[in-house]
Amino acid sequence: MRRTVEKGKTLLVDGPASVSLLSGETEILGAKFREGERVVIRDGKRLPFEASKKAAFDLRLGENASFKEIDGTTIPISWENAFKEVVSQERPVTVMVMGGVDSGKTSFCVYLANRSLRDGWKPAVIDGDLGQSDIGPPSTIGFSRVTKPLKDLFEMEAENACFVGVTSPSLAVNRVVERLTAIKSKVLQRDVDFLIVNTDGWIEGEEAVGYKVALAERVAPDVVVGIQQTNELAPILTLVKEKRRVIAMESPQVIRKRNREKRKTLRELGYKKYLKEAKMRLFPFNQVRVEDALSETVGRLVMEQIEAMEKGLLVALQDAEGDFLGIGVLCGVDHRRGGIRIHTPVGENVSTVCVGQVKLDRVGREIGLSPVFEQKPSELSQTKIQSKT
């Protein structure tokens, strides 16, 4: 389908769809979209195509995809002002982005990455949204450096990741805070001077407030940006601004709201991306250690615990240095050959298998959580003590 958009207007496209630019000039979240380029929009995602000159598009829409045209830009002026304030900081600068579910956090991260790259910075993104992770599979905290303009964080391959093992931070508060802090230190040792930290959408309630405040204190960003529709972040930002520079700004009106099922669909796309070309592989017990990812004190699981694990558990595979190699799906114990069978694309250099709580089928569909390694006490009170908030 051909669609022409006049200068000064924006075409909003909801996936699943693909869009090609036939003529004209447009931008997507601060990135130039050039003639002949094609972008694929995932189911559950929306992209804005802002026409800086009259533009003609070729639209190919999947089932339940849609589009509409609006006047002006979808980028609030507060986003532009926030970017200017962030880049006024000394290099390297770290900005942490907070907001509720479907507030525009990821779009703002893409915008920051594109604008900073265009202005000669060396940006990187840490994706701390376990349930809706774009960099790395769900249940991980992933990062990657940005070397070219982005339309969607999902385009990026994780350079490294930390496996948490659940898709909700409320189940592993301490682990999320510790892993984000550690990965930030590693990233800043690389050739990066503009670090963007995306966070999850858990913001309501006393535990969520304590978690977000602890996260800001431990990760210690130079700027915390809060995206909100009204003042839902006030309990968090009020506490954070005692020690950090805080910028509060509005959520765009055109952000697409997604239901629970649509968010689950997006997670499954993430699993499938990192299970591509997976095979059944055997990892001998005399060559790898098996650990519970959610344990307070990580250690090797004994055979009785391993045998109690359910088929379908999501696992992460790590090398001898603890670096993330990929994910897999647990298929069982092979007593005859003395090892653990895992459906995974990772076949070499594996030293540790970390077992999570998420259960998948072999093609990456989410089928629930396992109670085998369920966290029993809440970690939040410990986090509050450790962070002195």
Count of individual helical segments? 8
- Bin the strand percentage: 25-35%
What's the CATH class of the largest domain, please? Alpha Beta
CATH topology of the largest domain: Rossmann fold
Largest sheet: 7 strands, mixed
Provide the gyration radius in Å. Answer: 21 Å
Strand sequence of the main sheet, in spatial order? 13-12-11-14-10-15-16
Number of DSSP strand runs: 23
- Helix share bin: 10-25%
Mean residue pLDDT: 91
What are the low-pLDDT stretches, counting only 5+ consecutive residues below 50? 375-389
The CATH superfamily title of the largest domain: P-loop containing nucleotide triphosphate hydrolases
Structural class: alpha+beta
Question: Which geometry do the CA atoms define?
Answer: globular
End-to-end separation in angstroms reads: 55 Å
Query: So, CATH architecture of the largest domain?
Result: 3-Layer(aba) Sandwich
Domains, number: 3
